[in-house]
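Q: Here's a chain of 439 amino acids. Please give me its 3D structure as C-alpha cells.
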Amino acid sequence: MGSWELAQRWADALDGVVAPTLTRSQIEDMLAALCTGLIDAARGGEDPDVARQAARMLVAVNYRDPAAVSRTVPVLCTDLVEHAAAGSDDPALPEIRSRAVALAGDFAAGFTAALRAAALAEQEQTLAAVLSAAQEAEDRRALSEARFEAVFDGALVGIGTVDMTGSVVNCNLTLAQMLGQTPESMVGRTVADILGPANLNDAFVELQRMVAGESESFRTETEHVRDDGRVTSIDLSMSAVRDAEGAIRFLVGVAVDVTERKQLADRLWHDANHDALTGLPNRSHLFSRLAGAEPPVGVCYLDLDGFKEINDLWGHTIGDRVLRVVGDRLRDTLGPRSALPARIGGDEFLVLVEKCSGEQALTELADELMAALSAPLEVDGHMLAVGVSIGTAFFEQPPAAADELLQAADAAMYRNKHHARAAIRPQVHRSPPALDQTS
C-alpha cells in the first residue's frame, strides 16, 4: 500500500466531517503529500513537525470539527503502522507503533493550536470591524448607524456596549444567549456579572486603567456560571470608543464562547500525554513530570519477560490486551500513593516516586509490583503467565537529564535479570549522582 492508498483511507475516514473547501480529488492529493512525510517519520525520519503541519493544513481547508481528530488518530495508529512496517523486520514493528502513536499525539496537539489560531484571527477581525463601525457611529452617527446595527445584530460573536460605570447599555442576541439571558435582561447588569468572582479583581484594575485613559483595551478568559447552572467559558475583549476630541464615550466588548474549544484542548492534551493502549501517562508526560519532581526521587523500571513469545504465539491483539491488564494492575497496586506509573514503550513500564522515603521503601514497592504483575492473567479464556524484571534507582537529587535517571534504572533491571528475575537490588545515587555506585 503506497502513500496514495493511505491517503484514500484517510479521506474515507474524514468523509462527512464539515464540508471542506476542496474537492475529493484535491483532498486526496493533499493527504497523499502529507502521508509521504508521515510514513517517513514513522520509519524514523527526522522531520519533527510533520504531524503538526498535517493538522494545520486540515484546519486551513476547513476541517475544524473535533471529529477530524478522532477519525484521524486511528488512521495514524493503525493504517500508518501497517504501511510503514511493510517490508520491515518484525523487531522494528514496536518502534514503528511507538512513533505512530507519538505522531498521533503531535497531530492532536497541532490541531488544537491551529484551531485556536484560526479562532483568534477571526475574533480579531470581528473586533476590528466592530470598533471601526462603532467609531464611525460616533463621528458620523447618521451615516454609520445602519452599518453599526447590522454588524452588532448579525454578528456570530457576542457584542455589548458598556458605559463608564461598567453597566451594560445593550448587547446582541448572541451575547445574551451565551450568558443564558435575553438582550433586555442584560441591560443594567455590570461587567462583574459577566466576569465572575475569579477574574473580577484583575478585570476591575484593567477597567479602571481604560477609564483613566491609560490603556485602550484588555482581554481575558473567564468562566461564567449561568442561571441554569451551566458553565460557559468566554474569551472577552474590551476596547474604548472615543469621540472626535479623544474622550472615551463608552466601552465595547466582544465575547467568544470557547467552551467546546477548551474541552477539546483538555481532551487532546490528555491524548497527547497518555498511552493510547493502556491509558497510562506516556514517555513525554513522564519526562515533564521528572523535570519538576520533588526529591528524593525513586524509580522502578519494569520489563515484561516472555512478552515477545506471547505476541508470536497468540498475535498482537492478545499482546495488546496483556499490556492493558498490566497497566490496570499497576494502577491498582499503586492506589492513592504519590507515584506515577507510565508506559515508556513496547513492554517497558516505569513508576516514578516523588519524595521517596529511601531505598528500602523503593525495594518494598518493587516487591509489591513484582507480586502483582507475576500473577497469571486471563485473556479471552487463556491463562497466560508473564514474568517481570524490575530495576530500581534512588536519587537524593534528580539528575539534570531525565535520560540519566532512566538509564540507571534500566541498568539495574538488566543486572537483576542476570542474577535472578525475582531478586531486586536497588541502585542508589547520592548527590552528585554516580552511575557506577551499587548498594
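Q: Can you summarize the key feature?
A: The longest helix spans residues 93-139.
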